[in-house]
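Researcher: I'd like a candidate sequence for this fold, 99 residues long. If you have to choose between options at a position, lean toward the conservative one.
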């Protein structure tokens, strides 16, 4: 499956998640390099997903951006499927209940 297809599938799934607002951050000359593909606000929390194919690798800039988001107390992840996103969101929900 191509990266664009994975991204579209994840966006379609996220549209079904309660309290979730998300968009696909398009790259290009007007975008900011290194920003994850999908940006979300889920239950008031900032969550971002960098989408790759199973064999895809993060660039150094993407790695640095994910690190900066996490250091700022947001959540950012590299994902390769809708299933990975579902697992991440379930874990985030469980962490929220522990507080």
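Model: Candidate sequence:
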């Amino acid at each position: 499956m191509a990266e664009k297809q994975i991204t579209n599938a994840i966006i379609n799934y996220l549209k079904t998640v309660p309290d979730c607002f998300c968009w696909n951050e398009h790259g290009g000359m007007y975008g900011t390099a290194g920003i994850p593909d999908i940006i979300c606000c889920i239950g008031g929390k900032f969550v971002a997903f960098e989408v790759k194919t199973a064999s895809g690798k993060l660039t150094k800039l993407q790695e640095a951006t994910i690190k900066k988001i996490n250091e700022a107390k947001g959540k950012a992840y590299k994902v390769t499927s809708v299933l990975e996103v579902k697992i991440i969101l379930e874990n985030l929900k469980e962490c929220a209940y522990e507080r």
